[in-house]
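Good morning C.,

I know you're traveling, so I'll keep this short. The sequence:
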Amino acid sequence: MRRGLRPFALVTLAFGGVTLALAQPDAGTPPYGLTARTAPRAYLRMPERVDGKLPLHLSETGAFSDTRNQIASRGLIPYDVVVPFWSDGARKLRWVAVPKGRIRFSPTGEWRFPAGTVFVKTFSLPTDERHPEVTRRLETRLLVRDSAGGVYGVVYKWRADGSDADLLTSSLTEQIPIRTASGGIRMQTWYYPSRKDCLSCHTGRAGGVLGVKTRQMNRDFAYPSGVTDNELRAWNHIGLFTPRFSDSALSGFPKLAALDDTTRSLAERARSYLDANCAQCHRPGGTGAYFDARYDTPLGKQELVNGPVLYDLGIDHPRVISPHDIWRSLAFMRVDTVGEIKMPPLARETIDEQGVTLLRSWILSMPGPAVLGPPVISPAGGTFNGPVEVSLKDADPGAEIHYTLDGSVPGQSDPQYRAPFRLAGPTVVRARAFEKGFTRSITVQQVFIVGN
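The tokens, ready to paste straight into the viewer:
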């Protein structure tokens, strides 16, 4: 028994596919959740490096004692995070196998894991909008802390019968049928990443391991027995960390804000979302951009709000986040699309509507003048066999729309839109809205190829 702790009895229960020992302390003593550590075999049955012999089937990796039912092998610890990375609405189950040795703990920044640590994550996609509990198991990813100080990732695609999952040697795209609320069927694209894709985000600059860090793990959770605990405290008490910390230190550790946690400010929730979804690349020395998405960095030093951008994408006066202006906030624009400029660029085929709503609310809550939304050009550009009639419309009925047909940027001295106009040949239509007391809209354009 640890010195200073009151006596407790141990009970065991199944949680997340592994049997855990839980402390049942005397009344008045806070429970400590996990009470004993079982160190699994280093690397499980995975090679020390990615160029070693990789198991062809998930059942051969050592991650599960019962693969079909996802019963984790002895020593694997289930965990969760405060703000998960958006993965096209998939639900995730997470485990980690930490071999002999300890995690190099830090209240901020990245943790360092002993060689042979294996992270296991299973992705399941809801497939019936009328019954959210109905899911299809798609893949299980393993991330291995290798013997060279880096990491490698592998993906196992689940078989249709759920008996096992097979190693993928390259990326794969699959169309998943989803039953809609009206009873119809829509298809959702799912992207299985390649090993090279894994390293696009799991970089050395980001510590290789994403998500498993203080600000993500500083969270309370409840075991099925009703015992609650803090995830960091539980790991600390079973000796996973060096250096160890006192329970009293927990309150001073950073903690991300869940998207729906209304006890936290809009800024805290939005910055937490950007941290979880962008900080692996957007940090000093990372990808080609000026801003730092890490929550550990104070907002005033992140170059987020009014931060300069590397590429303007044809937007006038763009910023990473432009106060009270979603149209000139490129971070928002790139999250709110699945087009070529989408962010994150890999393994995201849908828009995270909850995340987009949060970012929009944060941006619009900032002080600043009202901003006009851009006009809509109808029909959308494209190829037409004969003349086409084009109309322009803005959501604000008091706005003046000015347009050009030569590809130049519209100003208030250019023609004002009053009625639909006819195009008989190739034309670039550009439009912008103006109104006194408002920031002018961004310029929009459509390209029309008219005629043979």
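Safe travels,
E.
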